[in-house]
Amino acid sequence: MRLNQVALQLYTLRDYTKTASDFAVTVRKARAIGYESVQISGVGPISDVELAAICRGEGVRICATHESGKVIVEEPQKVIDRLGCLGATYTAYPHPHVSLTTVEEVLALASALDKAGKIMRKAGVVLTYHNHALELRKFDRTTMLDLFFDNTNKQNVLASIDTYWIQAGGGDPVEWCRKLKRRLPLIHMKDFGVSRDNRTATMMEIGNGNLNWPAIIQAAEKSGCEWFIVEQDICPGDPFDSIKISYDYIKANLI
After folding, report:
1. β-pairing, 142-143 with 138-139?
2. Four-residue CA torsion sign, 234, 249, 193, 178
3. Contact call for residues 247 and 27 (beta carbons, < 8 A)
């Protein structure tokens, strides 16, 4: 992993990207910390043209986006057009937008994603699937996440593994990186720890939790990962402090 492959998922700073002026300040701060690339998610009603112009002006690349699941499966051309405007190659299906309580429902979504992913691939962009813990639920000893990847073409639907949610669901982030060889262009780096009251799992800055980052990075690299994206949905204080802690740890220990 090179330092210029480390990106920031802007969902972490969603409270500071509601307007174009706030977005510009936020991207400037992230770049000053060291982040050269961002993933667009959770921003306010700002036009794609303006988002692209602001990032370009701050010397920041847009490496990927998150899009509405409904739009991805029903209107993939909209996603293709948006990625073209933003200059990004990758997007991610962020969270199930339909019920997934049976194998049949899981397979139906897999089929819809495969069709959308094929359309996107032919247009030169890439659809990935971003997991939460719920995809580690098992159906007849097979996880939902396995069903998604086993029932989609590896060229049409790739992976955007989230390390925290894999761990929270009882999975092994290292093993998931390994099993998705040549299908893992994106990884969300999010550390896993325990709350002070010893009752719940909690998201932590990279290096402040318990995940085996050297092993995760090594496995992700061997699987062809292109972007290592820092994300922290919930921060203990100022999220700008959290993203700096993560970046500094990565720079000092994982590069």
Report:
1. antiparallel
2. positive
3. no
Three-state SS string over 68-117 comes to CHHHHHHCHHHHHHHHHHHCCCEEEECCCCCCCCCHHHHHHHHHHHHHHH
> Going residue by residue through the chain (255 aa), what tens digit of pLDDT does each one get?
999 999 999 999 999 999 999 999 999 999 999 999 999 999 999 999 999 999 999 999 999 999 999 999 999 999 999 999 999 999 999 999 999 999 999 999 999 999 999 999 999 999 999 999 999 999 989 999 999 999 999 999 999 999 999 999 999 999 999 999 999 999 999 999 998 787 789 999 999 999 999 999 999 999 999 999 999 999 999 999 999 999 999 999 999
Architecture field, domain 3-253: Alpha-Beta Barrel (3.20)
* Strand-pair category, 61-66 with 37-40: parallel
Single-letter code of the amino acid located at 14? R
Cβ burial, residue 161 (10 Å; 0-12/13-18/19+): buried
Q: Which amino acid is at 106?
A: V
> What pTM was computed for the model?
0.97
Cβ atoms within 10 Å, residue 193: 15
How many Cα atoms sit within 13 Å of 112 on the Cβ side?
Answer: 18
Which residues are paired to 38 by β-bridges? 8, 62
Dist CA 129 CA 68 (whole Å): 12
